[in-house]
Description:
By secondary structure, this protein is of the alpha/beta class. It folds into 3 domains: about 10-140, Rossmann fold (3-Layer(aba) Sandwich), CATH 3.40.50.300; about 160-255 and about 270-305, Arc Repressor Mutant, subunit A; about 325-409, no CATH class. The protein has helices at about 10-15, 25-30, 50-55, 65-75, 75-80, 100-110, 125-135, 150-155, 160-165, 180-200, 205-220, 225-230, 235-250, 275-285, 290-295, 300-315, 360-370, 405-409; strands at about 35-40, 60-65, 90, 115-120, 140, 250-255, 270-275, 325-330, 335-340, 345-350, 375-380, 390, 395-400. The strands form 3 sheets. Strands 8-9-10-11-13-12 form a 6-stranded mixed beta sheet, sandwiched between helices. Strands 2-3-4-1-5 form a 5-stranded parallel beta sheet, with helices on both faces. The protein has a two-stranded antiparallel ribbon with strand order 6-7. Helix 6 (about 100-110) packs parallel to helix 7 (about 125-135) and helix 9 packs across helix 14 (about 275-285). The radius of gyration is 22 Å and the shape is globular.
Amino acid sequence: MQMIYTIKCNLIAYYLDMSCPRVAADHLKELAGSHPIVLVSGARQVGKTTLLTSHFPQATYLTLDDPILAETAEASPREFLDGLSDGTILDEVQYAPGLFRHIKMWIDRDKRPGRLFLTGSQKFNLMQGVSESLAGRVGLLDLGGFTREELELAKQPIDLLDLVWRGGFPALHAGNGGVPRLWFPSYVATYLERDVRNLVSVHNLRDFARFLRVLALRSGQMLNLAEVARDVGIAPNTAKAWFSVLETSGIAVALEPWHCNETKRIVKTPKLFLTDSGLMCHLLGIATPAQMRASAHWGAIWETWAFSQIMGWFRNRGSVAPPVYWWRTVEGHEVDFLVEAPRGLVAIECKARETVQDGDDRGIKTLLKQLAGKESVHPAYFLTSPKPHPLKSGGSVVNGSGLTKLFKG
């Protein structure tokens, strides 16, 4: 007999109480109506399970985070799958990687849409299983934390500094809001360190803690893992392996530079970003929004939060690989984000202040000059301004709000 595990029921109910709408729900419904399998990926604790259980409340819920159930699924995959009811939610499927090829055979016997919902928080294992076994059968949704857009839809009051300081993890916005100084240490210890230990060998957790802090210090800068390794005191290959795990787990991103065939003199190094500004503040030891605002790292934190909002806009609308890049010439002219949006190419400069100042458009002007007559470029500035608005001189100001108009026109 199939055993039903409901370990997360209380946690799910806790999140549901806050009733914050997820923009990604529309895309989830489209996938469920057109694919026999839907896979929701993303970092731990971003609300993958909550999204599924809130929109499919009658579905059976199983979690492979439970080692007994994962062992059962691996040891007797056919029996395990045959015991599932249609619409089952199977959480943290990466813990039973051998299950993917059996899911293929199980689905091929009955390809009705919405038969199985999967979640997972380690993208490499998930995508490897999907590409090898489930190609053409699975709809993909990559979920991040709450965006400002979603909090506004929930009609929650927005304190911009507090929002950037907290970041987007749903637990920090539920009810009266969690306490970051209590929640983040547990998150790092319970999830990040465990995931790293599961995927690579970590002999010294203190080294890994220093590694996380060094990455936080470098969020928004060009990624140089050799320098990171030197600062932490570990081998370059170790830094590469650890960073790969953080990418796999949705905690860090190496943002690739944008280029076109005609544009030769560009920097080809990726740019490092943590995916959550609240986690960044925790790793930097920033205890309050006021301390964040006064910090020497405020500009990098603001850019990191802007990155999460831009990426979130695309992911919530179904983009598994958001068309977001950065751009810099070897002479040092730079555009923080270059987005291949539905309306065309959008060039975004991030400044941790309310107004555009002289020189803020230097990188955008260089880009416009290089792309004259080749690409349509829409300038924009991601500022702390109270409201998004157009500029008389051309371009737009956004602050987490206004992204839909910016990207769609």
